[in-house]
Amino acid sequence: MEYGQEKINIKLKTIKGFYVLWMPVMVPYAKLAGQKKGKTEIWEKGKMFGFGWIGIEDENGDKQISGDFKTAMHVGPYKKMGETYRKVMADNKGSKEMYNVYLNSPMEVDESQLKTKIVFR
Questions:
Q1: What is the CATH number for 17?
Q2: What's the average model confidence in pLDDT over 51-56?
């Protein structure tokens, strides 16, 4: 798997969501998508169990993410992201801070063309 490097400095407006085993159970993607207003990326911080969040870039946002990160790209269905994560975690032991950045949407493209950037350090 290929990895990139990225310096990130972004402020996000976030909405809380609930996760079980990293899977979204009650996460308001549709609500957030309605607020995108031309922005394409949706950021997500899931949890093994409990509340995480999803967010979009907003200069008045409530979350700041800054610093040097590694990146990996997952292309394809969301249900296969676990395979990509297993590779990322095996190659980058000790990474603790991880985000999914959804670059497109299943409402826009076929699931085989979904692009998700995994941002971690």
A1: 3.20.80.10
A2: 94
